[in-house]
Amino acid sequence: MLELVAAFICLTTLLTYVNFRFIGLPPTIGVMVTALLFSLILQGLSLLGYPGLEERIQQLIGQIDFGDLLMNWMLSFLLFAGALHVNLNDLRSYRWPIGLLATFGVLIATVVIGSLAYYIFALFGWHVSFLYCLLFGALISPTDPIAVLGVLRTANASKPLKTTIVGESLFNDGTAVVVFTVLLGIAQLGETPTVGATALLFAHEAIGGVVFGGLIGYLVYLMIKSIEQHQIEVMLTLALVIGGSAMATELHVSAPIAMVVAGLIIGNLGRKLAMNDMTRRYLDGFWELLDDMLNALLFALIGMELLLLPFNWLHVFAAGLLAVAILLSRLLTVAPAILLLRRWRTVPRGTIRILTWGGLRGGVSVALALALPLGPERDLLLSITYIVVLSSILVQGLTIGRVVKRVAEPQ
To answer: Which molecular-function annotations from GO does this UniProt entry contain (predicted)?
Structure first.
């Protein structure tokens, strides 16, 4: 296990260096592009009669349970780190569009994408049940802000845009995981539960996550407030994420939602009332470094997953059609929320277009696809999910800056 961790960290660090030194793309996108190029080079060497290195890397990547690693560990760290730097007052100011996008937006996207996927799959002669199409809609619905936030900063995007994108993505990951879990439970049971039972399960996961996150976040806040020792205070936040995620799993509540709530409490209440300047500096430095490292590992792993997936041109064409369907569903969820917000406050020009194009898909979608039961439907959905995520990050992630500069008002 130690050899696996060491090898992957060293490889990711090398890819990060190559991107920074020679390619110069935004860090997370650049790491993924570098990993993709590395994967293609290995495949090229195999075609030339030198398969040894590709086989060794495949063995290395194959030992990593991507779904378990991301969903049970990395996601909690990433969401907590992201929530630490979100201003709660800003979040409250845009709570309606964020709330609508992160809840009803996910539900609408699940149904719209699932319905369109059902007909697109049929167009290619693939018989995928409607329930599995809904599962695809749920797993592909959460947006991933990691790759786009740096671009938004350099493009001088307005605060409402950044707040809405960050706030939505922090909560819609948890919502999408809950929706996916409910649908997956239905698929595995082989019977449709009552609406009441489904709503109860959803409420237990989602609301339970909010309550649990609030409790442990406030408890750690009180502990931090009771001492003046920055090393211990930072360790308390680390223990909060590790222990809190494990406890949330045992309690069958949403760990992602719990970590977002806990992060908001520590990042706002704790930062203002329980920490001195030194603790704030250490806390920010520690979590920013951890966040950057985990993002690099995540996007490198996404890039190198190419080595494990069989290539099929039909999957590429289907993924292209589904990418259009996903953008359409994104527009259908973003536009009503923003138009509603305009009734009470001024909304920056181009917000709908930027939020639509900035709704990148990321590692959560791949991890959820890996959680599907083994079978031909899983193989198909996993392959298409991977292609959609890659195209989303590469196409939308590398062009969102131009879109912002072209249509948005500078802050």
So the answer is: potassium:proton antiporter activity; sodium:proton antiporter activity
User: Full-prediction pTM beyond 0.90?
Assistant: no
H-type alpha helices, 265-312: 271-273, 277-304
- Planar angle of CA 39, 310, 366, nearest 5 degrees: 75
Tell me the C-alpha distance between 325 and 347, whole Å: 26
Neighbours of 320 (CB within 10 A): 15
Segment 13-62, tens digit of pLDDT = 999 999 999 998 888 889 999 999 999 999 898 888 888 888 888 888 88
Cα distance between residue 18 and residue 31, in whole Å? 8
Q: Across the chain, which distance is largest between two alpha carbons, in Å?
A: 65
What integer pLDDT is reported at residue 411 of this predicted model? 47
DSSP assigned state of 305 = G
DSSP-assigned states of every residue in 20-39: IIII---HHHHHHHHHHHHH
Distance, CA of 8 to CA of 57 (rounded, Å):
10
Please name the residues in contact with 185: beta carbons below 8 A apart, sequence gap of 6 or more. 193, 201
| Residue-wise DSSP of 40-96 | HHHHHHHHTT--HHHHHHHHHHHTS-HHHHIIIIIHHHHHHHHHHT--HHHHHHTHH
CB atoms within 10 A of CB 52: 10
Residues 366, 144 contacting (CB under 8 angstroms) = no
* Of the candidates 299, 199, 284, 216, the residue with the CA atom closest to the CA atom of residue 250: 216
Residue 143's SS3 state is coil
385: tokens are: 């999910």
Instruction: Give the alpha-carbon dihedral of 210, 214, 220, 221, to 10 degrees.
Output: 140
AA identity, residue 172: N
User: Which ranges of 190-276 does DSSP label H, i.e. alpha helix?
Assistant: 195-225, 230-251, 255-264, 271-273
| Identity of the amino acid at 73 | W
Residue keyed to tokens 């995007």: 157
